[in-house]
TrEMBL record, chain A:
Pfam families: Response_reg (PF00072)
Domain of life: Bacteria
Name this polypeptide is given: Response regulator
Residue span, Response regulatory domain: 4-120
Residues passing through the membrane, by range: none
From TrEMBL, chain B:
SMART domains: CheW (SM00260)
Descriptive protein name: Chemotaxis protein CheW
Protein source organism: Litchfieldella qijiaojingensis
Pfam (any one): CheW
PROSITE patterns the record matches: CHEW
Domain of life assignment: Bacteria
Domain CheW-like: 10-154
Entries under Gene3D superfamilies matching the protein: CheA-289, Domain 4, SH3 Domains
InterPro entries according to UniProt: CheW, CheW-like_dom_sf, CheW-lke_dom
TrEMBL record, chain C:
Protein name: Chemotaxis protein CheA
InterPro entries tied to this protein: Bact_Chemotaxis_CheA, CheA-like_dim, CheA-like_homodim_sf, CheW-like_dom_sf, CheW-lke_dom, HATPase_C_sf, HATPase_dom, His_kinase_dom
Catalysed reactions listed for this entry: ATP + protein L-histidine = ADP + protein N-phospho-L-histidine
Ranges where the HPt domain occurs: 1-103
Length: 122, 167, 671
């Protein structure tokens, strides 16, 4: 059975790019446009990994990671966040909240795929 | 059509009767020919296009060339047909329908028999006629449908409909 | 299915982001201390930058990066929000728009904007920060490494799969893996979420050390990792042994958050239960296509109902009813999809007013209401230009300059209100200014000089005002750069009428002008009432119908003159559709009056028979009938014939004309 990846980003183009890349590699992709929606999706479906942006309206990525990690269904689910700058502070907060890893934007599709394979398997 | 004539090309034409006259229109612009269908009268519309019909889910205006050619409008009978055609209206393609008392056939009208409409001595507005052909003993009128629809529907701004006229 | 191009998606997204950036900036001008607005500006910029860089819009990413850097000073409270800052930020936003629409053509224009921006926030000489990728070693010979790692306690819970890490090491080269179970506690003490194993891997690979480190990139500061070269003289020393001491504290912090979070668990879970929906962008043509198909379905369904109505087959009737229910549900959903709140348009007007007020030196307060009012997307799309024109008019011609207002005893600042409200089958959108009002004398003078009216013609102000809708009629004696464009009120009127709407004008000298647009809710399918007039059947929008009454006996004999009906004390003008349509045949002995309304006005329509309600799929009339105001379209009935749809606004204004004439007559008699 193919793995399900949830991508959370307020940028539709990023979501689309992530979705195209991952579904092209055989993953199921769920999408959400902010942390709130992401949390609803992540807790309602069985997901194998989450890719989330940090800077989002309503609920930002850090808060999403915190709340999701507080939910039992997040156990064993890797969370990778996307970040635009190599901002140490944000990265530290995200990791403290329970993120597994990160990808720095802009990134190539290959890199994305490699990271997802790394955390979720193929 | 005049170009066709000069080039010596024959025209495939749908020949039909209306009143005492025989008309021929380019067969390429004919979409379909319908037997009698319910016609909805459009109050206050110009007499030339005072009807609407349903052609496969599309509301299509029904025009009567007899109005344009000053002929009397007689009641329809079992030979009456409605010819659905495609014309260009103010640069845009449009589907319209016209009455026919009787549809003859599709015929090759020899280009040589299409004569330029005589400007003088015609009963009709000469701009409405593209040419006159001969078919056996009778004359065949090649109407300029684009022109007729523009003028008779007031799209060229020359006439007013009853509604506007009364206001 | 064609694959969407993310670059296109980005362009669309960027338009939305720029729109919300603009709104936030305009809001910020009003509320300079609102942190949330500053954050929202920042977020828009951030996403623009990030996504722009992703999809090759480097100019955008670079420019926005600078923009963001400057704005960061505002966010950090090092610079304050001033009108000057907003003005430059708005033009920076516009510039980004250009960079996106026409890459490679506008880059040079960005410099002065950025310079102005940096000047205002006071960070001239800001250093452009660029991320430098870590240098990597070149290709090497295969070497053997010893890799030892132990995962942090929470690694499994956080989604790290040690087997995947091992797989990844295997991809780098030949591996010998040994699991070290030294730390595994007795069974009863085992926490299944904690990883007790450590691994010792001997790896032979051509890949550099960084490649091995990359395998653990997400874990390194929380784990014990040793990478040792087994080649002679290649031991890199202790600096490469990552033993992170902060691990226990981190785990503690993690535990704390979990406890904290546990209490909140309920909320997201219930939300998830409701199946939180995400939105989807669909090309507009597909919606149009869907609507067409649904229209055909509704017509086919009407035919089916007609046929089964005459049948005795109960089973057939049941199925037909089921299909009727389904198709009407499908119709409602499809129409709902097409409805867009008018607020999507209002946004751009704030910017328009903002710019106009600067340009014209007028203080303008712009108030919009009814943003949530929904209209068919086709209508919304067509409304933008007319509204821009009307608002421009209101600010430019409607409002006086501050001095003149002051002299007239008004506040220096003028007010322009834009309001949208539902009423019956239509939406009314009004643009109202508190300016000087229309100058009837000047309109008359212009109309006379243009030969539109005779010098001695007696016209009410209301009638005079209608001349501003005449082509080429513009009353502003000095044409300003703002309003003196090619489009005039005549174009506005044409557009509105093409949408089957109408336009109304009211003006009070000294206190302002109100322009009201009446628009149909939808151009697709409506609930209709079918009536018979003579031989013909006509459809009217059910939402416009207020009530149906019998035509009183007394009225039947008085065909001329008193065309008014007394309905519970109020006089309602009525139109005999038989006369209006020159219908043949005998009138029905029991004629009915259908009272319809549009805005404030009502009119009674006298018909021969009320047939019933039906779903009306609106088909536009061809251009050959475009000049018939009485009909807004046609529809196809269950029996396949065509019925015309009555244009309520047109008929009501017809009735209003009646009223007017009656009043005039009465005034003449009294005089």
């Amino acid at each position: 059975m193919s793995k399900t990846i949830l991508t959370i980003d307020d940028s539709a183009s990023i979501r689309q790019m992530v979705s195209l890349t991952l579904s092209g590699a055989g993953y199921n992709v769920l999408q959400a446009s902010d942390g709130e929606e992401g949390l609803a999706q992540a807790t309602a479906h069985r997901v194998d990994a989450v890719l989330t942006d940090l800077n989002m309206p309503k609920m930002n990525g850090i808060e999403f990671i915190r709340q999701y990690r507080a939910h039992p269904s997040s156990t064993g689910v890797p969370i990778v966040f996307l970040t635009t700058e190599s901002d140490g502070e944000l990265k530290r907060q995200a990791k403290e909240a329970g993120a597994t890893g990160w990808i720095v934007k802009p990134f190539e599709q290959d890199k994305l795929l490699a990271v997802v394979k790394k955390v979720a398997g193929s | 059509m005049n170009e066709a004539k000069r080039a010596g090309i024959a025209m495939q034409a749908l020949v039909f009767e209306l009143g005492d006259e025989i008309f021929a229109i380019d067969a390429a612009q004919v979409r379909e020919i319908l037997d009698e269908v319910p016609i909805t009268q459009v109050p206050n519309a110009r007499p030339f296009v005072d009807g609407l019909i349903n052609v496969r889910g599309r509301v299509v205006p029904l025009a009567d060339l007899r109005v344009a050619f000053g002929m009397t409008r007689s009641a329809s009978d079992q030979d009456s047909r409605i010819v659905v055609i495609e014309i260009e209206l103010a640069g845009e393609p449009a589907i319209v329908a016209i009455y026919a008392d009787r549809v003859h056939d599709v015929a090759d009208i020899e280009s040589a028999s299409i004569e330029e409409a005589p400007k003088v001595g015609m009963r009709w507005r000469s701009e409405y006629v593209r040419g006159i052909g001969r078919r056996g003993d009778s004359f065949v009128i090649h109407p300029d449908l684009g022109r007729i629809f523009m003028v008779e529907s007031g799209m060229d701004g020359s006439t007013e409909n009853a509604e506007r006229g009364s206001q | 299915m064609s694959t969407p191009d993310p670059a296109d998606t980005f362009r669309q997204e960027a338009r939305d982001l720029l729109e919300s950036l603009e709104q936030a900036l305009l809001d910020l001008e009003q509320a300079p201390d609102d942190r949330e607005l500053v954050d929202s500006v920042f977020r828009s910029l951030h996403t623009l930058k990030g996504s722009g860089a992703m999809f090759g819009f480097d100019e955008v990413a670079d420019f926005v990066h600078e923009f963001e850097t400057a704005f960061d000073r505002v966010r950090k409270g090092e610079s304050s929000v001033t009108p000057a800052l907003i003005a430059v930020a708005l033009s920076a936003g516009d510039h980004v728009g250009k960079l996106i629409e026409e890459p490679g053509r506008h880059a040079a224009q960005g410099e002065p904007i950025l310079a102005a921006l940096h000047d205002i926030v006071g960070d001239r000489g800001a250093v452009k920060s660029t991320s430098v990728p870590a240098p990597s070693d070149g290709a090497r010979q295969a070497r053997t490494w010893r890799v030892r790692f132990r995962l942090p306690d929470d690694a499994l819970a956080l989604g790290t799969n040690p087997l995947l890490l091992l797989d990844e090491l295997r991809e780098l080269g030949e591996c010998k893996v040994e699991a070290l179970a030294d730390d595994v506690p007795p069974l009863e003490e085992i926490d299944p979420q904690v990883c007790y194993f450590a691994w010792d891997v001997t790896l032979t690979t051509e890949a550099p050390r960084e490649a091995i480190e990359d395998v653990f990139m997400f874990l390194r500061d929380g784990m014990a990792l040793e990478i040792e070269s087994l080649e002679a003289g290649e031991n890199d020393g202790p600096s490469n042994t990552d033993e992170v001491s902060s691990m226990p504290t981190k785990a503690a912090a993690q535990g704390e958050t979990q406890v904290q979070g546990a209490g909140r668990q309920g909320a997201p879970a219930t939300k998830a239960g409701k199946g939180h929906s995400s939105s989807l962008r669909v090309p507009a043509e597909r919606l149009d296509e869907l609507m067409d198909r649904v229209g055909e379905l509704v017509i086919a369904q009407a035919r089916l109902s007609q046929i089964t109505g005459a049948s005795d087959d109960l089973e057939l009737k049941t199925v037909a009813e089921e299909i009727e229910r389904l198709s009407s549900g499908l119709r409602d959903i499809t129409m709902g999809i097409r409805m867009v709140p008018i607020g999507t348009l209002f946004g751009r007007f704030r910017r328009l007013v903002h710019d106009l007020s600067h340009e014209l030196g007028k203080e303008v307060e712009f108030v919009a209401s009814g943003e949530e009012t929904e209209l068919d997307k086709t209508v919304i799309e067509q409304l933008a230009d007319p509204l821009v024109h009307l608002i421009r008019n209101a600010v430019d011609h409607g409002l006086e300059d501050p001095e003149r207002r002051q002299r007239a005893g008004k506040s220096r600042g003028g007010k322009v209100r834009l309001a949208a409200v539902h009423s019956g089958a239509e939406v009314a959108i009004s643009i109202r200014d508190d300016g000087a009002g229309l100058d009837a004398e000047r309109i008359r003078a212009k109309a006379e000089s243009a030969g539109l009216i005779a010098p001695d013609a007696k016209l009410s102000d209301h009638e005079l005002f209608q001349y501003i809708f005449h082509p080429g009629f513009s009353t502003a004696s000095e044409v300003t750069s703002v309003s003196g464009r090619g489009v005039g009120m005549d174009a506005v009127k044409r557009t509105i009428e093409a949408l089957r709407g109408s336009i109304e004008l009211a003006s009070e000298p000294g206190s302002g002008t109100t322009v009201t647009l009446h628009l149909p809710l939808t151009l697709a399918i409506i609930d209709g009432m079918l009536v018979r007039v003579g031989e013909g059947r006509y459809c009217l929008p059910l939402l416009a119908v207020e009530e149906c009454v019998e035509l009183p006996e007394a009225e039947i004999t008085e065909a001329q003159g008193r065309n008014f009906l007394n309905i519970r004390g109020s006089l309602v003008p009525f139109l005999r559709l038989r006369e209006l349509f020159a219908a043949g045949g005998e009138p029905d002995p029991h004629q009915k009056v259908v009272v319809v309304s549009s805005g404030e006005s009502r009119v009674g329509l006298v018909v021969d028979q009320i047939i019933g309600n039906n779903q009306t799929v609106i088909k536009p009339l061809s251009r050959l009938h475009a000049d018939l105001g009485t009909f807004s379209g046609a529809t196809i009935l269950g029996d396949g014939s065509v019925a015309l749809i009555l244009d309520i606004t047109h008929l009501v204004s017809f009735g209003r004309g009646f009223e007017q004439r009656l009043r005039d007559e009465r005034m003449r008699r009294e005089a």
